[in-house]
Protein backbone atom coordinates (compact mmCIF):
# COMPACT_ATOMS: atom_id res chain seq x y z
CA UNK A 1 0.00 0.00 0.00
CA UNK A 2 1.34 3.42 -0.93
CA UNK A 3 1.36 6.44 1.36
CA UNK A 4 -0.10 9.83 0.35
CA UNK A 5 -1.40 8.62 -3.04
CA UNK A 6 -3.45 5.74 -4.43
CA UNK A 7 -5.44 4.77 -7.52
CA UNK A 8 -8.15 7.26 -6.50
CA UNK A 9 -5.77 10.25 -6.61
CA UNK A 10 -7.01 12.87 -9.08
CA UNK A 11 -4.44 15.54 -9.86
CA UNK A 12 -4.71 19.07 -11.15
CA UNK A 13 -1.65 21.05 -12.24
CA UNK A 14 -1.25 24.69 -11.28
CA UNK A 15 0.85 26.17 -14.05
CA UNK A 16 0.12 23.37 -16.51
CA UNK A 17 0.17 25.61 -19.59
CA UNK A 18 3.84 26.58 -19.15
CA UNK A 19 6.61 24.51 -20.74
CA UNK A 20 7.63 22.62 -17.59
CA UNK A 21 4.04 22.05 -16.52
CA UNK A 22 3.13 20.77 -19.97
CA UNK A 23 6.10 18.43 -20.22
CA UNK A 24 5.81 16.85 -16.79
CA UNK A 25 2.02 16.66 -16.78
CA UNK A 26 2.24 14.70 -20.03
CA UNK A 27 4.83 12.35 -18.49
CA UNK A 28 2.57 11.80 -15.48
CA UNK A 29 -0.37 10.97 -17.71
CA UNK A 30 1.77 8.53 -19.68
CA UNK A 31 2.67 6.83 -16.39
CA UNK A 32 -1.00 6.33 -15.62
CA UNK A 33 -1.63 9.13 -13.13
CA UNK A 34 -5.17 10.48 -13.38
CA UNK A 35 -4.65 14.15 -14.22
CA UNK A 36 -8.01 15.88 -14.47
CA UNK A 37 -7.37 19.60 -15.02
CA UNK A 38 -5.01 22.52 -15.22
CA UNK A 39 -5.19 25.87 -13.43
CA UNK A 40 -3.80 29.03 -14.97
CA UNK A 41 -5.38 32.39 -14.05
CA UNK A 42 -6.76 34.13 -17.15
CA UNK A 43 -6.82 30.96 -19.25
CA UNK A 44 -9.99 29.41 -17.86
CA UNK A 45 -12.26 27.82 -20.44
CA UNK A 46 -9.45 26.59 -22.67
CA UNK A 47 -8.17 23.07 -23.05
CA UNK A 48 -4.54 21.94 -22.84
CA UNK A 49 -3.26 18.38 -23.24
CA UNK A 50 -6.94 17.62 -23.91
CA UNK A 51 -7.73 18.64 -20.33
CA UNK A 52 -9.88 21.55 -19.15
CA UNK A 53 -8.10 24.63 -17.82
CA UNK A 54 -9.63 26.70 -15.00
CA UNK A 55 -8.91 30.12 -13.56
CA UNK A 56 -8.95 28.94 -9.94
CA UNK A 57 -8.24 25.81 -7.93
CA UNK A 58 -11.68 25.97 -6.31
CA UNK A 59 -13.36 25.86 -9.73
CA UNK A 60 -11.19 22.97 -10.89
CA UNK A 61 -11.86 20.97 -7.71
CA UNK A 62 -15.62 21.54 -7.89
CA UNK A 63 -15.84 20.53 -11.56
CA UNK A 64 -13.46 17.55 -11.60
CA UNK A 65 -13.29 16.16 -8.06
CA UNK A 66 -9.52 16.76 -7.92
CA UNK A 67 -7.96 15.80 -4.58
CA UNK A 68 -4.30 16.66 -5.27
CA UNK A 69 -2.33 19.43 -6.94
CA UNK A 70 1.10 19.67 -8.54
CA UNK A 71 2.50 23.20 -8.64
CA UNK A 72 4.73 24.45 -11.48
CA UNK A 73 4.58 28.15 -10.71
CA UNK A 74 7.64 30.48 -10.70
CA UNK A 75 9.08 31.31 -7.23
CA UNK A 76 7.60 34.82 -7.03
CA UNK A 77 4.03 33.49 -7.29
CA UNK A 78 4.46 29.99 -5.87
CA UNK A 79 3.31 30.88 -2.36
CA UNK A 80 0.11 32.40 -3.71
CA UNK A 81 -0.55 29.18 -5.62
CA UNK A 82 0.10 27.05 -2.51
CA UNK A 83 -2.19 29.16 -0.33
CA UNK A 84 -4.91 28.99 -2.98
CA UNK A 85 -4.71 25.17 -2.96
CA UNK A 86 -4.74 25.11 0.86
CA UNK A 87 -7.79 27.38 0.99
CA UNK A 88 -9.53 25.10 -1.53
CA UNK A 89 -8.93 22.27 0.98
CA UNK A 90 -7.05 19.98 -1.37
CA UNK A 91 -5.76 17.06 0.71
CA UNK A 92 -2.38 16.87 -1.05
CA UNK A 93 -0.23 19.55 -2.71
CA UNK A 94 3.15 18.78 -4.29
CA UNK A 95 5.39 21.76 -5.13
CA UNK A 96 8.20 21.30 -7.64
CA UNK A 97 9.22 24.99 -7.68
CA UNK A 98 12.49 25.66 -5.88
CA UNK A 99 13.97 28.73 -4.16
CA UNK A 100 10.62 30.08 -3.02
CA UNK A 101 11.38 33.16 -0.86
CA UNK A 102 11.67 32.22 2.81
CA UNK A 103 9.24 34.89 4.03
CA UNK A 104 6.68 33.65 1.51
CA UNK A 105 7.05 30.14 2.93
CA UNK A 106 6.45 31.48 6.43
CA UNK A 107 3.05 32.69 5.20
CA UNK A 108 2.40 29.29 3.62
CA UNK A 109 3.26 27.50 6.85
CA UNK A 110 0.81 29.77 8.68
CA UNK A 111 -1.89 28.87 6.14
CA UNK A 112 -1.17 25.18 6.70
CA UNK A 113 -1.82 25.40 10.45
CA UNK A 114 -5.17 23.74 11.12
CA UNK A 115 -5.78 23.09 7.41
CA UNK A 116 -6.80 19.85 5.68
CA UNK A 117 -3.76 19.92 3.37
CA UNK A 118 -0.52 17.94 3.34
CA UNK A 119 2.12 20.02 1.55
CA UNK A 120 5.10 18.25 -0.03
CA UNK A 121 7.87 20.65 -1.07
CA UNK A 122 8.69 23.17 -2.36
CA UNK A 123 11.78 22.03 -4.28
CA UNK A 124 10.38 18.51 -4.28
CA UNK A 125 10.97 15.95 -7.01
CA UNK A 126 7.55 14.61 -6.09
CA UNK A 127 5.91 11.34 -5.08
CA UNK A 128 6.17 8.02 -6.87
CA UNK A 129 4.17 4.90 -5.98
CA UNK A 130 5.22 2.30 -8.58
CA UNK A 131 2.39 1.29 -10.94
CA UNK A 132 -0.03 3.41 -8.90
CA UNK A 133 0.66 7.14 -9.19
CA UNK A 134 3.39 9.63 -10.02
CA UNK A 135 3.15 13.31 -9.07
CA UNK A 136 6.16 15.45 -9.95
CA UNK A 137 9.35 15.01 -11.90
CA UNK A 138 10.85 11.74 -10.61
CA UNK A 139 12.56 9.60 -13.22
CA UNK A 140 10.79 6.34 -13.99
CA UNK A 141 11.95 3.08 -15.49
CA UNK A 142 13.91 1.60 -12.59
CA UNK A 143 11.12 1.55 -10.01
CA UNK A 144 9.12 -1.54 -9.14
CA UNK A 145 6.41 -2.26 -6.54
CA UNK A 146 7.71 -3.53 -3.22
CA UNK A 147 8.16 -2.93 0.46
CA UNK A 148 10.81 -0.23 0.83
CA UNK A 149 9.67 3.30 1.63
CA UNK A 150 12.05 6.09 0.62
CA UNK A 151 12.07 9.61 2.02
CA UNK A 152 14.62 11.92 0.43
CA UNK A 153 16.02 15.42 0.28
CA UNK A 154 18.04 14.72 -2.87
CA UNK A 155 16.52 14.24 -6.32
CA UNK A 156 19.52 12.75 -8.13
CA UNK A 157 20.39 10.35 -5.30
CA UNK A 158 16.77 9.24 -5.18
CA UNK A 159 16.95 7.93 -8.74
CA UNK A 160 20.19 6.09 -7.93
CA UNK A 161 18.78 4.51 -4.78
CA UNK A 162 15.54 3.44 -6.47
CA UNK A 163 17.59 1.66 -9.16
CA UNK A 164 19.76 -0.04 -6.53
CA UNK A 165 16.78 -1.27 -4.52
CA UNK A 166 15.13 -2.67 -7.63
CA UNK A 167 18.44 -4.23 -8.65
CA UNK A 168 18.54 -6.11 -5.34
CA UNK A 169 15.23 -7.75 -6.18
CA UNK A 170 13.28 -5.46 -3.86
CA UNK A 171 10.87 -2.68 -4.70
CA UNK A 172 9.39 0.52 -3.34
CA UNK A 173 6.08 1.16 -1.62
CA UNK A 174 6.37 4.92 -2.13
CA UNK A 175 9.19 7.38 -2.74
CA UNK A 176 8.71 10.89 -1.33
CA UNK A 177 10.90 13.90 -2.03
CA UNK A 178 10.28 16.17 0.94
CA UNK A 179 11.96 19.14 -0.71
CA UNK A 180 15.34 20.79 -0.52
CA UNK A 181 14.39 24.36 0.35
CA UNK A 182 15.01 25.30 4.00
CA UNK A 183 11.31 25.92 4.76
CA UNK A 184 8.94 23.32 3.37
CA UNK A 185 5.84 21.31 4.18
CA UNK A 186 5.95 17.65 5.24
CA UNK A 187 9.05 16.76 7.21
CA UNK A 188 11.13 13.63 7.09
CA UNK A 189 9.71 12.68 10.49
CA UNK A 190 6.14 12.89 9.22
CA UNK A 191 7.02 10.65 6.26
CA UNK A 192 8.71 8.14 8.56
CA UNK A 193 5.57 8.08 10.73
CA UNK A 194 3.44 7.25 7.69
CA UNK A 195 5.82 4.52 6.54
CA UNK A 196 5.93 2.94 10.00
CA UNK A 197 2.12 2.86 10.02
CA UNK A 198 1.87 1.40 6.51
CA UNK A 199 1.46 -2.40 6.74
CA UNK A 200 3.02 -3.00 3.33
CA UNK A 201 6.19 -0.97 3.96
CA UNK A 202 8.76 -3.40 5.37
CA UNK A 203 11.77 -1.08 5.64
CA UNK A 204 12.66 2.59 5.25
CA UNK A 205 15.51 4.38 3.49
CA UNK A 206 16.36 7.97 4.45
CA UNK A 207 18.37 10.01 1.95
CA UNK A 208 19.66 13.03 3.82
CA UNK A 209 22.26 15.67 3.21
CA UNK A 210 24.02 18.55 4.90
CA UNK A 211 22.06 21.55 6.11
CA UNK A 212 19.17 21.86 8.53
CA UNK A 213 18.28 19.46 11.33
CA UNK A 214 15.66 17.15 9.81
CA UNK A 215 17.81 14.05 10.11
CA UNK A 216 18.48 14.78 13.78
CA UNK A 217 14.73 15.18 14.30
CA UNK A 218 14.17 11.75 12.76
CA UNK A 219 16.80 10.37 15.15
CA UNK A 220 15.05 11.94 18.15
CA UNK A 221 11.72 10.52 17.00
CA UNK A 222 13.16 7.02 16.56
CA UNK A 223 14.94 7.17 19.91
CA UNK A 224 11.65 7.97 21.61
CA UNK A 225 10.00 4.89 20.12
CA UNK A 226 11.38 1.54 19.03
CA UNK A 227 11.09 1.37 15.25
CA UNK A 228 9.23 -1.76 14.17
CA UNK A 229 11.00 -1.81 10.80
CA UNK A 230 14.63 -1.53 9.73
CA UNK A 231 15.75 2.00 8.85
CA UNK A 232 18.79 2.70 6.67
CA UNK A 233 20.19 6.17 6.00
CA UNK A 234 22.55 7.77 3.50
CA UNK A 235 23.87 11.24 4.37
CA UNK A 236 25.39 13.12 1.45
CA UNK A 237 27.96 15.88 1.80
CA UNK A 238 30.50 14.37 4.19
CA UNK A 239 33.34 16.16 2.39
CA UNK A 240 31.54 19.41 1.58
CA UNK A 241 33.36 22.58 2.72
CA UNK A 242 31.60 24.39 5.60
CA UNK A 243 29.69 27.64 5.07
CA UNK A 244 29.40 27.06 1.34
CA UNK A 245 26.07 26.25 -0.27
CA UNK A 246 26.31 23.04 -2.28
CA UNK A 247 23.63 22.82 -4.96
CA UNK A 248 20.21 23.89 -3.73
CA UNK A 249 19.44 26.36 -0.98
CA UNK A 250 19.01 23.83 1.83
CA UNK A 251 22.49 22.31 1.60
CA UNK A 252 24.38 24.78 3.74
CA UNK A 253 26.30 24.19 6.96
CA UNK A 254 26.95 27.13 9.25
CA UNK A 255 29.19 27.31 12.30
CA UNK A 256 29.29 23.56 12.87
CA UNK A 257 25.53 23.04 12.47
CA UNK A 258 23.93 20.80 9.87
CA UNK A 259 27.12 18.90 9.02
CA UNK A 260 27.08 15.29 7.88
CA UNK A 261 29.01 13.97 10.87
CA UNK A 262 26.52 15.22 13.46
CA UNK A 263 23.62 13.80 11.45
CA UNK A 264 25.27 10.38 11.14
CA UNK A 265 26.11 10.29 14.85
CA UNK A 266 22.53 11.16 15.84
CA UNK A 267 21.05 8.51 13.55
CA UNK A 268 23.47 5.84 14.78
CA UNK A 269 22.40 6.57 18.37
CA UNK A 270 18.84 5.88 17.23
CA UNK A 271 19.88 2.46 15.83
CA UNK A 272 19.61 3.58 12.21
CA UNK A 273 22.03 1.71 9.97
CA UNK A 274 24.21 4.05 7.92
CA UNK A 275 24.97 3.02 4.36
CA UNK A 276 28.78 3.19 4.02
CA UNK A 277 28.60 4.65 0.50
CA UNK A 278 26.05 5.92 -1.97
CA UNK A 279 26.52 2.82 -4.15
CA UNK A 280 25.73 0.46 -1.25
CA UNK A 281 22.31 1.68 -0.16
CA UNK A 282 20.43 -1.07 -1.95
CA UNK A 283 22.64 -3.79 -0.50
CA UNK A 284 22.43 -2.27 2.98
CA UNK A 285 18.61 -2.22 3.09
CA UNK A 286 18.50 -5.72 1.57
CA UNK A 287 20.75 -7.06 4.34
CA UNK A 288 18.80 -5.18 7.02
CA UNK A 289 15.52 -6.68 5.80
CA UNK A 290 17.02 -10.18 5.75
CA UNK A 291 18.17 -9.81 9.36
CA UNK A 292 14.72 -8.56 10.41
CA UNK A 293 12.91 -11.60 9.01
TrEMBL record:
<keyword id="KW-0816">Tricarboxylic acid cycle</keyword>
<dbReference type="InterPro" id="IPR016102">
    <property type="entry name" value="Succinyl-CoA_synth-like"/>
</dbReference>
<dbReference type="GO" id="GO:0006099">
    <property type="term" value="P:tricarboxylic acid cycle"/>
</dbReference>
<dbReference type="Pfam" id="PF02629">
    <property type="entry name" value="CoA_binding"/>
</dbReference>
<comment type="similarity">
    <text>Belongs to the succinate/malate CoA ligase alpha subunit family.</text>
</comment>
<dbReference type="GO" id="GO:0000166">
    <property type="term" value="F:nucleotide binding"/>
</dbReference>
<keyword id="KW-0547">Nucleotide-binding</keyword>
<dbReference type="InterPro" id="IPR005811">
    <property type="entry name" value="SUCC_ACL_C"/>
</dbReference>
<dbReference type="GO" id="GO:0004776">
    <property type="term" value="F:succinate-CoA ligase (GDP-forming) activity"/>
</dbReference>
<dbReference type="InterPro" id="IPR036291">
    <property type="entry name" value="NAD(P)-bd_dom_sf"/>
</dbReference>
<dbReference type="InterPro" id="IPR005810">
    <property type="entry name" value="CoA_lig_alpha"/>
</dbReference>
<feature type="active site" description="Tele-phosphohistidine intermediate">
    <location>
        <position position="248"/>
    </location>
</feature>
<dbReference type="GO" id="GO:0009361">
    <property type="term" value="C:succinate-CoA ligase complex (ADP-forming)"/>
</dbReference>
<protein>
    <submittedName>
        <fullName>Succinyl-CoA ligase [ADP-forming] subunit alpha</fullName>
        <ecNumber>6.2.1.5</ecNumber>
    </submittedName>
</protein>
<dbReference type="InterPro" id="IPR003781">
    <property type="entry name" value="CoA-bd"/>
</dbReference>
<feature type="domain" description="CoA-binding">
    <location>
        <begin position="4"/>
        <end position="100"/>
    </location>
</feature>
<dbReference type="Pfam" id="PF00549">
    <property type="entry name" value="Ligase_CoA"/>
</dbReference>
<dbReference type="InterPro" id="IPR017440">
    <property type="entry name" value="Cit_synth/succinyl-CoA_lig_AS"/>
</dbReference>
<keyword id="KW-0436">Ligase</keyword>
<dbReference type="GO" id="GO:0004775">
    <property type="term" value="F:succinate-CoA ligase (ADP-forming) activity"/>
</dbReference>
Amino acid sequence: MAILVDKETKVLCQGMTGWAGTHHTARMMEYGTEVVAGVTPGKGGRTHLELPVYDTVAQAKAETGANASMIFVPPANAAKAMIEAIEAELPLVVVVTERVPALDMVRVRQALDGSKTRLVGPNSQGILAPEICKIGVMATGSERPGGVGIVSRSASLTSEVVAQISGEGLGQSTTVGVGGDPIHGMSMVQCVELFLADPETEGIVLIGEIGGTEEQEVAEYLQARKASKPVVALIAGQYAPPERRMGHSGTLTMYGRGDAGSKIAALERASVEIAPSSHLVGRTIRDALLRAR
